[in-house]
Design a protein that fits this description.
alpha+beta; globular; five-stranded antiparallel sheet; about 30% strand; disordered N terminus; about 130 residues
Amino acid sequence: MTSATESADHVSVHLTGCDERAADAVIAALDAAFPAGAGAPVREAAPPGPSRAGGQPVIWCTEVDTKARRAARGPSPAALGGPVTADLFGAADPVHQVKEELAAAFGVEEHGTVPGEHELEVRLVLTPLDKPSK
């Protein structure tokens, strides 16, 4: 069981509307910003097979420990084939930290916020960053 202090720094990230490649790109960007220690992020999705082929939605999940945040660095190109919906769940400050890091790697549009007594839920739509013109 995790303590309240540990869980207060964790943000649950749920990705939908994307394939495995796009989910991997988002999770890699989060791994770069919040290096995994002993509590490595866990990805969950529907098992391959008929449910995926049948058009059932897939949710890619990871948990980020914001205590492990790295110092700022330049944005790295991340490959997204199209928009990805990201739902962030956690305490307000950690959720804002995760949102900042996602905004460094992707275009981010906020599509709603639900404040709670101790938690915040934010829905984002991530898009590829425009490539700088030469």
